[in-house]
Amino acid sequence: MRLGYGKRQTGKQQTPGNNGQQTTDNRPQATDGNRAWMGAWRVRRLRSLSGDGMNKVHLEYCSSEEWAAALRKWIVPMALENVDLGDDTLEVGPGPGRTTDLLREMTPKLTAVEIDKDLADALSARMANTNVKVVNADATSLPFPDGRFSGAVSFIMLHHVPTPADQDRLLAEVARVLKKGGTFAGCDSLDGEGFRQMHVGDICVPIPPDGFAERLKNAGFSDVTVDPNPYVLNFRAVR
């Protein structure tokens, strides 16, 4: 749902067609509260969308207290259950920074990489004098040395990367800058009619659950888990 990875585009949206096996585990699936929140949110969003206001509504929601509450209660805890981020963590694609607000309490040092300059500048100003450094950069070519970070995360932004090939480059870059044994964890939205309507006029390249585990392995990860629930695709992988 994050807006800000790359420029807006119009025309046909792309969907990757990779093959491979997904893996699952027994972590908790969507709760009743999660279902209720998502259902109510989708109704409100679809009722409020109209024409060119789509991306504005999207960005406003991703900056909202409502979205922050959903991240705090369900999305981040489910994705990071039993994950040790270590003492030097990378966040890819923070957007307005609602995830950053939570992550900075989970690690001594957090680096947030955002490709959109306006969003990066705003988040950098908001995170001044904290343990967060915001870097305006393209995550398909990260400006960090090999093995720099102890952990890495990405929340609801991979579908904003323009092509499957670019997504794979991003995954490989995250693997490159992670220390051996470090975990890359997060989640992304699942494809669907309502999801597509929320991204009219914006880059939208959803991640199919089938095949994503293989893509992570090809990027240099092992011990991969891909765990879709009714609303998001959770994933984690070890460098």
Structural commentary:
The protein has 8 helices and 7 strands, in the order H-H-H-E-H-E-H-E-E-H-E-H-H-E-E. With 239 residues, the protein is α/β, with parallel strands linked by helices. A 7-stranded mixed sheet has the order 3-2-1-4-5-7-6, with helices on both faces. Helix 4 (98-103) links the parallel strand 1 (89-92) and strand 2. Helix 6 (164-177) crosses helix 8. The longest helix is centred in the N-terminal third of the chain and has 17 residues, at 32-48. It is globular, with a radius of gyration of 16 Å.
List the helices and strands and how they pair.
Blueprint: H1 32-48, H2 54-62, H3 65-79, E1 89-92, H4 98-103, E2 110-114, H5 117-126, E3 132-136, E4 149-155, H6 164-177, E5 178-189, H7 193-197, H8 212-219, E6 222-228, E7 232-238
Parallel strand pairs: 1-2, 1-4, 2-3, 4-5
Antiparallel strand pairs: 5-7, 6-7
Spans where pLDDT lies below 50 across 5 or more residues: 1-54
Order of SSEs, N→C?
HHHEHEHEEHEHHEE
Overall pLDDT metric? 80
How are strands sequenced across the largest beta sheet? 3-2-1-4-5-7-6
- The proportion of residues in beta strands is 15-25%
Structural class: alpha/beta
Counting DSSP E segments of at least 2 residues, the number of strands comes to 7
Q: What oligomeric arrangement do these chains adopt?
A: single chain
Radius of gyration equals 16 Å
Helix content: 25-40%
Quickly count the helices.
8
